[in-house]
């Protein structure tokens, strides 16, 4: 085995691809640890320097487009081939995504008796597709990362249809919803950038492979600017209702993890797939929800999405650590049992 610093003229393309993947994984592991801190810092900047931060408002949708373009760059045709090879777990994950989280959002809004703007914002977070951070957390949790990517991809492609329809159905009682306009915005912000990134990956795969480790950082910087802009526009509401929004977000996210796992296990999915579904359901594209809420509802309605962007990265890292610790305990118990059986033989 060669050391990390050594080189060889006979390095195969497979070895190079493997090295690129290791580098990408290392970058993602570091990034998911620092994500919450960076986004929280952006929220603090938005709150204390609301004037300059709110001026970023017009850049929110282009920044979301950058994030989704980056997601497209990480996709390959094999990610979509998994849908054909393993349609059942993908279908379970996507159904859970668009069934559990919207209904939890409505339940949380009703339970906490949220004001109309905040209720609409919480529900919109629930109606958003899966977030790309779920793929990184799935990797760290030793869940099924390929399945996570497939679920995120499918839920994202379905977002122009399902997000506005579900938002109109569930949040329309709180605030007027322009379903058609929202659908077109999602096409422009999500669908076109993702397809564009996928095409670039197909045409310039070697170039894209080189920049893959940088993509998580570009995404977190973009979402940080989005959060700063959203918080800057609603600094007064943050001071008045920040604690209530945080409680709503924690409930929404935590119940998503728990019910997503339970839903998958109820349908007899293995533990690894159930972990993937739980992460996919609990972690949302909250940046998209914040941008849409700011555009179609009000600055206050965008707060749940902004807070969710901070919290779900933190809770996701914690959940991944708990899953890994559970694996370690299970492996230790199995080893102890094997040792005991060997000793008594």
UniProtKB/TrEMBL annotation:
**Listed PANTHER family:** P3 PROTEIN-RELATED, SODIUM-BILE ACID COTRANSPORTER
Instruction: Name the Pfam families on file.
Output: SBF
Provenance organism: Brachybacterium huguangmaarense
Protein name per Swiss-Prot or TrEMBL: Bile acid:sodium symporter family protein
For this UniProt record, give its keywords in alphabetical order, as a comma-separated list.
Membrane, Transmembrane, Transmembrane helix
Q: Where in the cell is it found?
A: Membrane
The topology of this chain with respect to the membrane is: Multi-pass membrane protein
Taxonomically, what lineage is the organism? Answer: Bacteria, Bacillati, Actinomycetota, Actinomycetes, Micrococcales
Membrane-crossing residues? 30-51, 63-83, 90-112, 118-140, 147-170, 182-204, 211-232, 238-264
Q: Where is this region: Disordered?
A: 1-20
Q: Which InterPro entries match?
A: BilAc:Na_symport/Acr3 (IPR002657), Bilac:Na_transpt (IPR004710), Na+/solute_symporter_sf (IPR038770)
Keyword Membrane included in the entry's annotation: yes
* Presence of keyword ATP-binding: no
